[in-house]
Design brief:
Elements lengths: L10 E5 L6 E6 L15 H13 L3 E4 L11 H15 L6 E3 L9 H11 L4 E5 L2 E5 L13 H14 L4 E5 L24 H10 L2 E7 L5 E6 L2 E6 L18 E7 L2 E7 L11 E7 L2 E7 L2 H4 L8 H4 L1 H8 L5 H12 L4
Parallel strand pairs: 1-5, 2-3, 3-4, 6-7, 7-8, 8-10
Antiparallel strand pairs: 2-11, 5-6, 9-10, 11-12, 13-14
Helix pairs in contact: 2-3
Amino acid sequence: MTIQEVPHDGAYLGSKGERNTFHFAVMSDTHTHRTADPAEQSETLNRIIYELNLLRPDFVLHAGDLIRGYTDDENRLRLEHQGVLDAFSQLEMPFFPALGNHDVREEVSAQVWAEFWGGRWYSFDYGDCHFVMLDAEMDKDNETISGDQLEWLRSDLAEYAARKRVFVTLHRPWWYDYPLHLGDWKEPGGRNDWNGVVDPVLREQDLAAVFCGHRHVFEVNYRQEVPHIVAGGAGGDIKVSPEFGGMSHYIWASVGPDRFTWSVVVPGQVLDPDCAVEHERIVSERPILISSIDFTEKMPWTLHSSAARNGWHHELETATVPLSPIQRFFGRIARLFGGA
């Protein structure tokens, strides 16, 4: 793994690749360890790292909350950040982190962040795309970015984003209409300036997508046709049911000269070729070794042998319709000869 060094706030890290067709992954809210021991890594995070090493994206983005944090114990914070480095040292591709509210809350945690990661907002290029990593905590009382960071964003986009697609990553989804001042940490008189101030700055460029986390769910909002994606399920606690986006996941993104596509991956679906079971089969009177995977064991939702051809949902839906004996007979004949 190459953790990109960010020498200072507002750093431009240059071009990290020249190809205009590439892939990247996005994760958030790993919180690295799920117990009191920072050396005990999250099983979900380890699984995601394992799968990314199989899928081989060109780089990985992290939308914040790398650690549990919420302490001003300097030694404890260092142990937790070292746990992050130990976990992500398994990655075999470049890694670009943003910070979250668990990473930086006050002066001590800000100092430890700087010690391990450097600057708090920065940008880089890949192919014909420009990637911006923002600090959502600097002006959290106004639920936006402002001041020096906002001025940097304007100048960065003007200098480096012309004729490029722009991807933005930050921890909190400030585009939601948050109920202001409900938390004890908020200052009175705050306002949400993201939609009124920051979004128009981004729209001056070819904005392709915005990624964040914080909510420990998967959500997507299309705002003026631009996907704003919440990917908060890479190891932290999941507190809502799957029907509301509560699931462990990460984002797989593909970029081409004229396209950008993305999908959600639930850990456990990407299989290592080594998991195949080798056995002998006689073909033309000659034994050969083939690889076979019992998908019903590896992936329980694969309910029957024809799932790859027909789709499991088709079988589930039609299974509720009573069939006559003659229909069942001709159905078996059709499947035997490769029918749908």
